[in-house]
Write a structure and sequence with these properties.
The protein is an alpha+beta fold. The protein has four helices and seven strands. It has one domain: PAS domain (Beta-Lactamase, 2-Layer Sandwich), CATH 3.30.450.20. Helices cover 22% and strands 25% of the residues.
């Protein structure tokens, strides 16, 4: 028996926001990602994948994931995964299902909560801001020691080819990689 979306949200204690109130607490990177999506959406409920132009957001590319929504299992599959997203996972999940490859999997974080985030975006055609800070693998930071990669907040947004059905989820996570003193390069990481 499938639990209704409203009941699943009500039963969840996972830290997430489902309104633009996230703009009060998100990082500048997440705000920029939101503003880009809103501009691409225009007066439609959501933009399509073809509206997204990587050359317009080179600074965001390392932090972005595109997840394909499928009609059959595995239902959600990573299509494109930025380099900072790879760093926080410790491996590149491109082409893999979300199950078993999401941020926090290595820490035993609840898969149901991650899948609920996607379900909200897909069924409600709306945003989900997940602000459950997650540590990634330990990164070498030079002769002074090692520090963990950290995911500090993630925004998931819908994309639709036909304007009605969500067929991709556009995601940006604010990720801190120790020793990353320079801004991301302008090369396309995806």
């Amino acid at each position: 028996m499938t639990v209704s979306l409203d009941d699943a949200i009500a039963a969840s204690t996972h830290p997430r926001l489902l309104t633009t109130d996230f703009l009060k607490i998100c990082s500048p990177r997440i705000r920029r990602f939101w503003e880009y999506w809103v501009a691409k959406r225009g007066d439609r409920p959501m933009p399509s994948r073809r509206d997204i132009e990587p050359t317009e957001i080179p600074d965001l590319l390392p932090y972005i994931v595109l997840t394909e929504v499928l009609r059959e299992p595995p239902y959600l599959r990573y299509r494109l995964v930025g380099t900072k997203q790879v760093a926080v996972r410790g491996h590149d999940p491109t082409g893999e299902p979300v199950r078993g490859h999401y941020i926090g999997h290595h820490l035993g974080q609840e898969e149901d909560e991650v899948l609920l985030n996607y379900r909200i975006v897909i069924e409600r055609h709306s945003l989900v801001y997940d602000y459950n800070p997650t540590l990634g693998p330990i990164a070498e930071t030079g002769s002074f020691g090692i520090k963990p990669v950290r995911e500090l907040g993630t925004l998931l947004l819908p994309l639709s080819s036909d304007g009605e059905t969500v067929d991709m989820v556009f995601c940006c996570a604010d990720i801190e990689v120790p020793g990353d003193l320079n801004p991301p390069s302008a090369k396309a990481d995806l």
